[in-house]
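Title: Comparing notes on inverse folding

I've been comparing how different people in this forum approach sequence design from structure. To keep things fair, I'm posting one structure and asking everyone to reply with a full sequence. Here's the target:
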């Protein structure tokens, strides 16, 4: 009781966070809709629990920390829709709740900088759904913190795998930049927030260096000492509808607030030092 951490949708970020929580004495539960994912959850150090189960409702009653990585579905937030009232009933015991959102809520600024006070102008259905989900989380009577993430990279998740598998293509769209963050810096930011809760806060999670995606691939190929991936103009690229939608938005995202308010000192302030670390760790 009191040392229970509940992770809704126990994906890459939550799995990376779990060992640090275990070291601090927290018992971590990770939800999944399928038992097929239980082994991955267990490998991270968490206890797997089925999404719709009486056991999950029992865990909520003893939970002190909550993290949701669950994406909106059909225009609503599945966690709030299914378990919002359960969480509300336990709100006096919940010391910290985190919702992982996306910088897509800002929409397209033609490459201009945005921060947490910038207007929300999502241009995609996914972005609109995220704005609605954020509002629902913030309106409930528990200490919610919103984290707007850029692209996530880290061990076993990054450009090295695409290049070595021959799937990497440098897509050129003049002026286009993306913001990203190494998973270790995401984890340290979440831990900083947990240690100093400020309910209803919103934080951007990105590094210092918004950069063109082709530059990231070029540097990764250089580090691997392999041939550079092929280049294609955006208009001619064979992209899924979702991938194409990412290129419809262009912005630079400020991370100043996590530094000033949470005291975060980035381990990997740009993609170059982040990729160099992954290379050292055999990516």
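Reply #1:
Here's my take.
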């Amino acid at each position: 009781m009191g040392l229970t951490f509940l992770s809704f949708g126990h994906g890459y970020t939550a799995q990376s966070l779990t060992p640090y929580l275990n070291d601090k004495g927290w018992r971590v539960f990770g939800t999944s809709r399928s038992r097929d994912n239980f082994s991955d959850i267990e490998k991270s150090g968490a206890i797997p629990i089925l999404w719709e189960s009486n056991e999950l409702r029992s865990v909520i009653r003893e939970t002190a920390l909550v993290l949701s990585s669950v994406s909106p579905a059909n225009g609503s937030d599945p966690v709030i829709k299914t378990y919002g009232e359960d969480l509300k009933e336990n709100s006096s015991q919940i010391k910290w709740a985190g919702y992982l959102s996306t910088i897509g809520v800002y929409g397209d600024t033609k490459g201009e900088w945005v921060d947490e006070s910038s207007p929300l102008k999502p241009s995609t259905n996914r972005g609109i759904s995220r704005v609605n989900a954020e509002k629902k989380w913030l309106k409930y009577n528990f200490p919610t913190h919103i984290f707007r993430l850029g692209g996530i990279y880290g061990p076993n998740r990054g450009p090295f795998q695409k290049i070595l598998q021959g799937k990497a293509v440098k897509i050129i769209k003049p002026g286009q930049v993306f913001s990203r963050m190494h998973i270790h810096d995401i984890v340290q930011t979440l831990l900083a927030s947990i240690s100093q809760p400020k309910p209803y806060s919103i934080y951007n999670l990105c590094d210092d260096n918004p950069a063109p995606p082709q530059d990231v691939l070029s540097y990764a190929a250089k580090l691997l000492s392999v041939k550079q991936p092929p280049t294609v103009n955006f208009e001619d690229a064979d992209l899924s509808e979702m991938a194409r939608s990412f290129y419809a938005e262009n912005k630079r995202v400020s991370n100043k607030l996590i530094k000033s308010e949470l005291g975060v000192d980035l381990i990997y302030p740009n993609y170059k030092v982040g990729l160099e670390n992954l290379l050292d760790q055999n990516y």
